[in-house]
Design goal:
mainly alpha; Fumarate Reductase Cytochrome B subunit; about 180 residues
Length: about 180
């Protein structure tokens, strides 16, 4: 039997912080695209697509790391509802990190546009071009982005609560190594 760890593995921590920056950047880039009809919109879209695919690849790596490394336990004195909220919010974050790029890719495919990662790298369409499908996916992408942003804010609030109010090891387990 292995001794429980008090910190996340270094690779898990690196992926967490890298992806946190990428996801927050994506949310702001997406907001900028929605708010803009200028030439800047095309530049943001050309940044948004490859960044989304990078997030999709990294979340798969992150899930592999999560399931193959030991995770620190939550504090034993944490109320059951908070432990459940922590578990469910992590499931939601992972689901959104997977779903958002896939929905974006499907949305662009449904629009009949290519998903270009660079001037020479084109991803295949994952759904047929169809205006109603595009409209549905665009709406889903927008509302899930709002949910993602709200979930990230709650995750940040919980982390700060653990670090500043409870002063337990939860925040520290993702900030520092052993």
């Amino acid at each position: 039997m292995t001794t429980p760890t008090s910190h996340f593995a270094p690779l898990a921590r690196a992926l967490h912080w890298l992806m946190a920056l990428m996801v927050i950047a994506m949310l702001f880039i997406g907001a900028g695209m929605v708010a803009s009809i200028s030439e800047r919109h095309e530049w943001l879209l050309n940044l948004h697509k490859p960044l989304g695919i990078a997030i999709l690849v990294l979340v798969i790596v992150r899930l592999i790391v999560r399931f193959s490394t030991q995770q620190p336990p939550l504090p034993a004195d944490l109320p059951a509802w908070q432990a459940l909220a922590a578990k469910l919010s992590h499931y939601l974050l992972y689901a959104l990190m997977l779903a958002m790029p896939l929905i974006g890719w499907a949305m662009i495919s449904a629009a009949g546009d290519p998903v270009m990662l660079s001037s020479s790298v084109r991803l295949p369409s994952i759904v047929a071009a169809h205006a109603e499908t595009f409209a549905f996916l665009r709406t889903a992408h927008r509302y899930l982005a709002y949910l993602f942003f709200l979930t990230i804010l709650m995750h940040l609030a919980a982390a700060l609560f653990h670090g500043w109010v409870r002063r337990d090891e939860v925040l520290d387990s993702m900030l520092r190594g052993k």
